[in-house]
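Hey, quick one: can you model this chain's 3D structure?
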Amino acid sequence: MNPELQKILARQRYAVVGNHSGVKLCHWMKQSLLFGRQCYKQTFYGINSHQCLQMTPTVTHCTHMCLFCWRFQNFTENQLLDPDDPGFILDQAIVAQRKLLTGFKGDPRCDQKKWNEANHPNMLACSLSGEPTLYPHLGEFFEACHQKGMTTFLVTNGTMPEALERMSTLPTQLFVSLVAPNEEVYKKICAPLIPNGWEKIQQTLELLPSLSTKTVIRHTLVHGWNMDDEHIKEYAKLDGKAQPTFIEPKGYVFVGSSRNRLHFSNMPRHEQIRSFSQRLAEEIGYSQVAEKEDSLVVLLSAKNQKKKKD
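Sure thing. Here's the predicted structure for all 310 residues.
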């Protein structure tokens, strides 16, 4: 990795792993350690916020330059050369996380039991930055995680369906970020770096029902851009094609580098997320089973299973 890029990432409190991977402590891990608060993934899916390893095998590589992305994007690449070994990435990511956690131990607010558990992550969120499916050994990476007894979540923008098809081991749960109801909005809000991104996303949606893992469609909703009333039916049609286990309508948050591209007024209120979710649920025949207001997110399920409201 270019040394200048490493300096930028270090200033943003990333730990660089190998040639192209990165680790960063999740906001909700810190909240869990210091204040006992949990992220919506714990509320919705039962993972422990303080034992989650947030990382990416493609810290500077992506196929989009989304307007709402909070990451620094000035170094985005879309081709990964000379990839590191998956076992090396996992082992070094755990080492990097432990180093990042070191300072919390001496904080009087820190739950020491949780701190000890945090040093032994049992959950890996493969997202953070970039597009993880650009890493060619992602299936082997998840296999290495599962061999250590770790649950795995993968978040993808859906532009690499061929990577999902050839994956030898799938993640425990697969999230596809579907942030546009149609191609016109997609090109404006996602600023794709590849010519056929929307076509690739359609292929991914069609592929999802055949995959033997839990699937989630996440709609990142940006007020004034992609959540108007006329978009509901378009999203419902796309979601119907994917037949996901869950749907997450989630509000854009005005943080990080996105503040250079959007405005605070683009961040929807939770009431707007809830209203959007209710109408989408009615359109597609899903049920609202949970919500978390401090994360601006609602959970819709294909099954009528009730989850506790938090």
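One thing worth noting: The CA atoms of residues 122 and 148 lie 8 Å apart.
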